[in-house]
Every structure is written in C-alpha cells, then in structure tokens.
Amino acid sequence: MTEIVSAGGNASTSKGSAKRRLLKTAKKLFASTGKAAWIMSTTFLVLVVPLIIETDREQQLVELEQQQMGVLTATKPSS
C-alpha cells in the first residue's frame, strides 16, 4: 500500500512540476514577445515615422511647384 501512495504522490508531484514548467515557459514567451514588440515599435518610431513625414513634405513641395508653374504658364486673356 505504501508503494501505491508513493506512486500517486509522484504522479501529483510530476503534474505540479509540469504546470510549473509550463508557467515558466509561458512567462519566458510573454517576456520575449514584449521585448520584440518594444524593439519593433521603437524601430518604427525612429526609422519609419521620419520617413513618412519627409515624404509628405516632399509631396507638398512638388504640389506647390506645380501650382507655381501653372500660374506662370497660364495665358493671359486678351482684352
């Protein structure tokens, strides 16, 4: 009877250690995912956002030049 109890005790202990290992693995995964998200977001802010802003400025400059060329090349109506 002691063997059955000890075997049952080992089974519950192994289940408990399996749960602890699973929780530890989940915590590591969560921490890694958080680190990856932080790296991706800061990289986006440092590299991509200034590129978007500069592209927008360049587009506005091109539109302004096109408007100025349109005004300069417009024919004056003859009176």
Automatic annotation (TrEMBL):
The keyword Kinase does not apply. It is a single-pass membrane protein. One of its GO terms (biological process) is intracellular protein transport. The chain crosses the membrane at residues 29-53. CDD domains: TOM22. The keyword Cell membrane does not apply. One of its GO terms (cellular component) is mitochondrial outer membrane. Pfam families: Tom22. It is found in: Mitochondrion outer membrane. Keywords: Membrane, Mitochondrion, Mitochondrion outer membrane, Protein transport, Receptor, Translocation, Transmembrane, Transmembrane helix, Transport. Belongs to the Tom22 family. This is Mitochondrial import receptor subunit TOM22. It comes from Chloropicon primus.
